[in-house]
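Appendix B. One record, verbatim.
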Amino acid sequence: MAIRVANAPVSFGAFELTVGILPNVPAAERILAAMAEQGYEGTELGPPGYLGDRETLGSRLEAHGLALAGGYVPIRFGEPGEDLRGLDETLDLFAAAGGTPRTVLADDGERGGEVDWRRLTDGVSRAAERSRDRGFEPTFHPHMGTRVQTPAEIERLLELTDVALLLDSGHLLAAGGDPIAGLRDWRERIDHVHLKDTNLDVLRRHPDWGEAWRAGAFCELGTGDVDLGALVGELRGYAGWLVVEQDWVPGPEDDPGPQVAAQARNREWLRLHAAL
């Protein structure tokens, strides 16, 4: 299996905090048509139900010639409010769509204070086993604003679990890490990649992560501070999904058209600079 290139609804402004909330989130059909026209081979799921339900998801993806690469599942691991219903819903959609999408597990606990690593990682292991029981491989997504974002926190998670790792170049740089070093150090555990670029100047101007994210910390490929050329070069031998993500939080009056066009430029960047 060679590298396959996907995108995700979050690049178009469609994710848990916008779908069904903001009026200017593009319709699923518009996003899927754009991805197909732009040359992406697959998509991640987005919020369960956004791209389709168990009866329609598979046929909708097939109509656009797209495969399902994975689905993002935030869980408050090890906390009293730990809830796996969202995981079950995602796995039901995976089964309906077919293929071998990755279950992208992410911490949804609040950052700050001392972390009970045993409780957190026991929760990760429970969710990972639930996914495997359904026939889908889990991978863990370190994410800004959660209890697992820095290189040291990633190392601790890897030490205490057997779950595979998602490398997200943008989140790792934003958390003070080096994406190339991370790829080298954790290569044996990495089975899914989110390719993001990050503008560190936005982070410097907005110390609060939520503000930085909304201000465009994740930018078009090749316009930020991730050494994407070197990173893609280090991916030689990797076989799996490379998911382009440029998280976008639309303002109340933003036209999604320019953001849709940006995903075409991101795809072209990969063709020109990585022969993908």
